[in-house]
Design brief:
With 252 residues, the chain is an alpha/beta fold. The chain has a single domain, classed as TIM Barrel. It is built from eight helices and ten strands. It is globular.
Length: 252
C-alpha cells in the first residue's frame, strides 16, 4: 500500500449541544463524513463544518442515516425500500446544497451507524441506498465495509466502491464490527489503535476481538469524531501511518 485516506465523522453538533472538535479533526483527516441532519447536525452546524472543510482542502462526503436524532442513528429503522431511497436522496441533496453554497461539493456517500451495519447484510436496504446514489449522481463513490452487501450491489450498479477500516472499533473474526453493546467494541488507547493501523497499511491484517488474525483490505481509515479522545487518536493514527511510509490522501 502506498497511500490511504483518513476520514472522520463530523458536523454532529446540534443546537446547544457540541459534539467533537471538528476544527481540530479537519487538520488531521483528508475526508470528512458530514452529518446530513437525520442522525445529527443542524443547518448552521453543517454550513460551518462544510466551510471549514473547504478552507482546509478536505473532501466532503454525505453521511446518510436513519431519521433518528434521539438515538444518534444507532438504532435500526424498518423502513421500506422506497422510504429509505427517498431519505437518502433527500440527505445527499441537502448537504450538497450546503456544500455548493460554500464552494465545495459532496464527493462521496457513506452510511452512518445502524444503517452502515444493516446494509452489510440487509439486501433490500442496501439496494435502496445504492438506488438513491444512482438516482442522485452515479459518479459518487460509496464507502462501506469490505465484503458487504452494500458494496456488492454498488459494484453491480457500476458505482465506485471504497472499502473502509475502523481505527477505533473491534472486529469479529468474520470481519464485521463488534456491536457497541459489547465490552471492548470501542478502542480508546491511541498507542494501541496506532499500532493496529500501522499493521493494517503494511500487512493488510488486524487482530479480531477473539485474537484470531484477520485479513483486511481498506482504501480509507475511519476515526470517530464523537469521543473525548478523538483528536489525539486521529493524530496518533496519522503519525503511525506516515512513519510506516504510507502517504495520506483523499480517495477522491
Amino acid at each position: 500500500m502506498t497511500s490511504i485516506d483518513l476520514n472522520a465523522d463530523l458536523g454532529e453538533s446540534f443546537g446547544a449541544w457540541t459534539l467533537g472538535d471538528d476544527s481540530a479533526m479537519l487538520e488531521v483527516v483528508t475526508s470528512a463524513n458530514v452529518a446530513c441532519g437525520f442522525h445529527a447536525g443542524d443547518p448552521i452546524t453543517l454550513v460551518r463544518t462544510c466551510e471549514m472543510a473547504a478552507a482546509a482542502g478536505v473532501t466532503v462526503g454525505a453521511q446518510v442515516a436513519y431519521r433518528d436524532l434521539a438515538g444518534f442513528g444507532r438504532r435500526f429503522v424498518d423502513e421500506t425500500p422506497d422510504e429509505l431511497r427517498a431519505d437518502v436522496i433527500y440527505q445527499i441533496g441537502a448537504l450538497d446544497g450546503v456544500c455548493r453554497s460554500v464552494g465545495t461539493r459532496v464527493a462521496y456517500v457513506k452510511p452512518h451507524g445502524a444503517l452502515y451495519n444493516t446494509v452489510v447484510h440487509h439486501s433490500a436496504q442496501a439496494a435502496a441506498v445504492v438506488a438513491a446514489v444512482v438516482a442522485y449522481d452515479r459518479t459518487l463513490p460509496i464507502v462501506g465495509l469490505p465484503r458487504s452487501e452494500l458494496l456488492r450491489q454498488a459494484s453491480m450498479a457500476g458505482l465506485r466502491c471504497v472499502t473502509e477500516a475502523f481505527a477505533d472499533r473491534a472486529y469479529t473474526p468474520e470481519g464485521q464490527l463488534v456491536s457497541r453493546r459489547e465490552e471492548g467494541a470501542v478502542l480508546r488507547d491511541p498507542l494501541v489503535v496506532a499500532e493496529r493501523m500501522a499493521r493494517l497499511v503494511t500487512e493488510g491484517r488486524l487482530t479480531a476481538i477473539d485474537g484470531t488474525d484477520l485479513a483486511l483490505r481498506a482504501d480509507s481509515i475511519c476515526t470517530h469524531g464523537d469521543s473525548p479522545d478523538a483528536v489525539a487518536l486521529a493524530r496518533a493514527v496519522r503519525a503511525a501511518i506516515s512513519a510506516a511510509g504510507v502517504s495520506i490522501k483523499a480517495f477522491v
